[in-house]
Amino acid sequence: MEFETRLATRAAQVEELLRAAIADWRQSETNPPELFEAAEAALLAGGKRLRPSLVLETAQLCGAKTPQAHQAAVALEAIHCFSLVHDDLPALDNADTRRGLPSLHKRFGEATALLAGDWLLAQGLAHLQTQQKKTGQGNGAELAQELVQELAQILSSATTAMIAGQAHEMQTPPKNEAAWLAIAQGKTCALFMAACELGAVSTGADSPTRALLIEFGRNFGLCFQLLDDLCDFETECQDKPPRNFAVLFGRARTKELFSERLAHARQNLGLLKLAPTQTEFHNSALAWLEENTAA
Length: 295
Fold this sequence. Notes:
This protein is mainly α and 295 residues long. It has helices spanning 2-25, 33-43, 50-61, 67-88, 104-108, 110-135, 141-171, 177-187, 189-202, 207-231, 233-236, 245-249, 251-270, 280-293, and strands at 97-98, 101-102.
């Protein structure tokens, strides 16, 4: 419960940041009302806010709280929500509900949902730049602009990797572990890796620290996907062709690989050589995943 309580606190902070961003975006006269309403509904549809929370917690782990980390968290969550909207569309997962509510295309129609997803993607990538224009005056503005460009590049690369992973899974479903891992590192891990990298880069963390946190994000993301596959085993066991790791290789192997990746993630954190209080959130997140595999 300790991790869930801390995550809920971060999620509330993220919610405030998202609402502030929406207030800014609403000022644009180019947004058709229904499109904006659909995008806003997708962005404020709840959820754990795990990825943006990782941005903020990683920045704190690195010893600083920066406006850039806040804006990066908003941008990342906008892109994550874009991916959920598009995943639910009939052409992909054809999901009627999301978190117990009608999915966006069931509420607003397929065309509006598709465009709302597109808008969230574009807005996410543009958000860092627009915020920099508002705050980047005076001393240090040039350095801040370089940082924003680096953060935007991280987001762009992660988004491309996520989309590519989804495309590979659709076009060439995995037939062995190596193929499954390659897909998962794109469609699932890319945003977790970006969350950790965004948090580290926004605070000026050195290259070794940044590399370890990226690897933590990769291993965390794989654990997250393996747990998801275990939870979805019953509902996805009839899928043809199968894409679920537990369906493809069995529950025992899924738990074995989960444990391997969990150990790697803990090793990543240990190599940072930080006080336990600094890595508390990240270690607690791993323990939370581990507890859920035993449920």
